[in-house]
Amino acid sequence: MIYLLLYFEFFKVAIFTFGGGYASLPLIYDAVVQNNAWITAQQYADIIALEGMAPGPMAINVATFVGTLIAGVPGSIIATLGLCTPAMFICIVVARFYLKYKDQNLVQSLLSSLRPTAIGLIAAAAITIFLTGIFNNGDGSIVMENFNIWSVLIFVGGLYLLRRSRINELWLIVMGFGLGVILYPFVS
């Protein structure tokens, strides 16, 4: 039964995601943390951090990680298939439609209205992950006693390096990992 639920939840995520992998994060969060309680908010934040070190599309990596946690290797395959199946069919239909009608005003208007929606979904995911990382609470709530200044400093430093230098994102992840390993004994 868990396999069917996994497939269905990730299928729904794929159907309702507009704007790429990052836009799927709040929908995946709702499916696996809020609605089904398969994993905690802290586990989800950890998955997002680990996903950055894996090659490949972000949403597929997250589906694979989550599926593995919930139901092992078969779960990872089923969650990934659930995420990919609708996208494949939607892309085929949309590509054919777009090629035929791309110059129509209605199509351009529709695309213009979807862009801010996608940005909003990405921002919601970023805020959720940020709050979970900063407050280290594991359940998605904000508890001031769990505030972690080191997480804030690593975040600000990483953001600064990302915006002000040409540092590769992979090196930024490696540096954040290294700082986390060094600082963890002092902050936990």
Automatic annotation (TrEMBL):
It is a multi-pass membrane protein. The keyword Transcription does not apply. It comes from the Bacteria. Its main location: membrane. Signal peptide: none annotated. It is found in: Cell membrane. One of its GO terms (molecular function) is chromate transmembrane transporter activity. Coiled coil: none annotated. Belongs to the chromate ion transporter (CHR) (TC 2.A.51) family. This is Chromate transporter. It comes from Alkalibaculum bacchi. The lineage of its organism: Bacteria, Bacillati, Bacillota, Clostridia, Eubacteriales.
